[in-house]
């Protein structure tokens, strides 16, 4: 079965991290977010991957090329983001039988995707506490009987987890009218399939829709835990590594370092001397954590540098960020309230008691910069030495 993976979106809610790469290409443990989906589809038996691409499509194409793990990969360009059904319809010339549709910015349990493929036609569902914000599935006698978008009075707590195994006929039902929000939605295609076929609900325990920066942290928390501990790089005899720690070939862990996993130190990255890395932390390719730096539960993207005497907690640093000596991130409010963050101009709760900062690519802080919780530093922004930054910073 072919798997169509939707990866055309920019990820406007995750800005500035998506300034130069589409959201599905942001790092989650040892690969881009969308690669977790592609790999789950391949493990479940997909014989071709069709990636629907749009925003910064070259980045996706450069990563996967024309085959991935021996499975052919092809591309469909969606030039206008007119909805998920529209996205699948863009790939229509690739469809020649049953097909799966998966979101390139969702994290699935690989075993659930396997069951989805086996039980086709089928849809993945996850039990949630507040179903009102989701597409909600009704079921009877082991089949799906209905799907309602964001119902005021949800019939169940089974949320649509955005993974579908469709019958061949669905190819002809892709041209659905626009919804109230003006998008052509895949859930309207699913409604038709539910009417005409017996659709199996596949319940999954864990699922994530990565939309906002702190959800990228949470995605890393999940996937870093699933790594097998492995030391292929150079680790000093005086370094202490505890829990699930992966040091890739070409990475260096210097003397006096303590790493409490789960943590992944990718190729070309260097840690220490005398650094402390803890919580779920990703130090991506070529990133550097220097002397007397503490990094907790954070993502340091490729080429990011935190040189010396700094603290970074519950934060996401974009590519080639450079934190000057003594840069300190605050990740907890005095009133203990959940940290808020600005998403598309609106201040929203992250739902996290601890959240630090999000720094876009190329941000540079001067020495002894203090950063307050929930700050956004836009791509290329700078601070001067000794500055206390408590408002989002433009470039
Ligand atoms: P969304 O998360 O709704 O959109 P987005 O990824 O652009 O993010 P944001 O809302 O922050 O701007 O999209 C869900 C998935 O479907 C995601 O993987 C992108 C993909 N998609 C397309 O490929 N084409 C489309 O027209 C739409 C609406 C989504």
Automatic annotation (TrEMBL):
Keywords: Acyltransferase, Multifunctional enzyme, Nucleotidyltransferase, Transferase. In the N-terminal section; belongs to the N-acetylglucosamine-1-phosphate uridyltransferase family. It catalyses: alpha-D-glucosamine 1-phosphate + acetyl-CoA = N-acetyl-alpha-D-glucosamine 1-phosphate + CoA + H(+); N-acetyl-alpha-D-glucosamine 1-phosphate + UTP + H(+) = UDP-N-acetyl-alpha-D-glucosamine + diphosphate. GO terms for molecular function: glucosamine-1-phosphate N-acetyltransferase activity; UDP-N-acetylglucosamine diphosphorylase activity. It is an enzyme of class 2 (transferase). It holds the Pfam family GMPPB_C. Residues 259-351 form the Mannose-1-phosphate guanyltransferase C-terminal domain. CDD domains: LbH_G1P_TT_C_like, NTP_transferase. InterPro entries: Bifunctiontional_GlmU_arc-type, GlmU-like, GMPPB_C, NTP_transferase_dom, Nucleotide-diphossugar_trans, Trimer_LpxA-like_sf. Pathway: Nucleotide-sugar biosynthesis; UDP-N-acetyl-alpha-D-glucosamine biosynthesis; N-acetyl-alpha-D-glucosamine 1-phosphate from alpha-D-glucosamine 6-phosphate (route II): step 2/2; Nucleotide-sugar biosynthesis; UDP-N-acetyl-alpha-D-glucosamine biosynthesis; UDP-N-acetyl-alpha-D-glucosamine from N-acetyl-alpha-D-glucosamine 1-phosphate: step 1/1. Its EC number is 2.3.1.157, 2.7.7.23. The lineage of its organism: Archaea, Methanobacteriati, Methanobacteriota, Stenosarchaea group, Halobacteria. SUPFAM superfamilies: Nucleotide-diphospho-sugar transferases, Trimeric LpxA-like enzymes. This is Bifunctional protein GlmU. Residues 2-221 form the Nucleotidyl transferase domain. It comes from the Archaea.
